[in-house]
Every structure is written in structure tokens, then in C-alpha cells.
Amino acid sequence: MLYKAITIQMSTYSKVYNQYQKWLTENTVFAVHTTEAYLRIIKNFILYLEGSNLMRLNDVDKDIVVRFSHFNSSKKRYAPASINLRLAALNCFFSWTYEKEYSRENPLINYKRSKIVPKPLSTTEKGKNNSTSVILLPFEQEQLIKHGIDDSFVAVRNKCIVLTILASALFIEEVIDLTPEFLDLKRGYIDIAGEDKRERRISIDLAICQEACQAWLAIRKKALADIKLPYLFFTEQLQPLTRRRLYKIVSDYVLEAGIQSKRSGPEVLRLTAICNMLEKYSIQDVQLYSGLKTLNQLGKYQQLITLIV
User: Which uninterrupted H or E stretch holds 189?
Assistant: First the structure.
């Protein structure tokens, strides 16, 4: 197969960028801030290529992309969240150029992003059993995803609840009130009315929750039969979940997955989801998805904020 990238010179980078910009703004599910951030990064990347005398996209390999995404012009390393945002933008761009046959491959295939980890707890924090002072580490998140006892109503529902929070950063009340029609597993988002009654669209991580949600939707359909119940999640008696019941469901599931008790509450899943979002999206979009009025709104979010400065 002949690839268009073979004949793409520096003078045509602008044409490729314009086509990509049109595609991204018309077809993406990203919010405005993330789209703008992605385009800004690609513009700077093109300038970087031109400054490095790279005449073709096929001259770009993983090492070149990593140097651009990890270090600034003074060779100072970016913060992990900044690196991951740049990698996400470049991965999106090269996936598109490969699909359009402008490049032979995506150099970021199978490249692992930097992990954002919480700061060590202070002596004061260690003395408190405060679930908001810690987040789940990557291997613990993997434990939640892989954990599953059986395919019963309760087991499948509980797993779906836990992974939905982990993928979306929903508030407890939002999980309780969530209805199936506002969950879009094809395009990867949840439409929701926030606590301040402002509607928002949350981009969710389908890699975390898609399989669990599909399994639960199938069981939910059988359980309801001809009964009309608006809620996505409910009890075996077909009653809405209470806040206390939801907290216990999450806590029990996390403990059964082998994670220490002080990290078992729904708020820990929410904070972890926000931290995951900071690896992919702009700060403004994370604020929108998480339902916060400002990123420094509450003291318990200060730890997350310090991870991205």
C-alpha cells in the first residue's frame, strides 16, 4: 500500500493540520477545552518538527515524540499530568494520520503514559483514617476491574456501580439517580444534572466500565421484565438505593478486592477518577466532568491540584 506520508513535506504540514482540526472539532466527544488543548499541542509539535528539519511524518518515531512530550525547549521535564496530556493529544493525532494513510504507523502504539501518584501522607494525615487523603494506585484499580465473584444480580450490580464511579467521578447522589438513557456506552459519556442543577456531560473511561455496564444492563432487563423503574441501579426488591446502602456496596466490594479499609469509600473512587482524568484532559474539562465549581473549591482536592503544577 502507498502512503500519502511519503510525499508530505514541511510545506504541507499546514494542510494536514487544517484537515485534522476540522475532523477533531466535528467528530470528537471531547469538551471544548480539551479539543483546544489538543490542537495547541499539535501546532507546537509541527513547529518542533520544522525546527528539527523533519521533512516527513514517516521520519517521526517514538523517541522524537517522547522528547517533545516530556521536555520543554530548555530540556526541563514537564510534570506527569502535562506529559500525559501531550501524549494523549499526539496519540489522537497519529491515530488519525494513520487512518488517513498520512503515516505508516502510530509511533505511540502500546506506549505507557506516566503514572500520577499521590504525595506521601504527612504524619498528621497518617494518623487519620481519612478516605479523602488517598487515592487508589494503578494496581489497586486493576484489582477492582478484575475482581468478580459470580454472575448473580448482586455481584454484577455491585461491580458495575464501583467501576462506573471509577470511570466517571460521579457523586453518590448522581449514582443513585442515574438512569439508563443517560448512559451512552457507544460514545463514552454520561449526561447528568449536577448538584447545582447545571447539566453536564461526563466523558467516561470505557476501558474501565464498559464490560461491567453491559453485563449489568442485561441482568437489569431480565430483573425488571415488564416493571417500569427509571433508575439504573436498584435493590433486589426493586427499590431505589439509599445513600447508606450504596456506601456499603462500594466499601464491601473494595474490601473483597483486597484493598485496605481506609481506602474503601465511594469518595476514594471519585478522587481516583478525577486523578485519572487529569492524565487525559485539560484542567477546565476535569472541573466540568467532576462537577466542581473550582478546582480549589475544597481542601480535600488540594492534593490532586498539587499533582499537576
Answer: strand 189-193
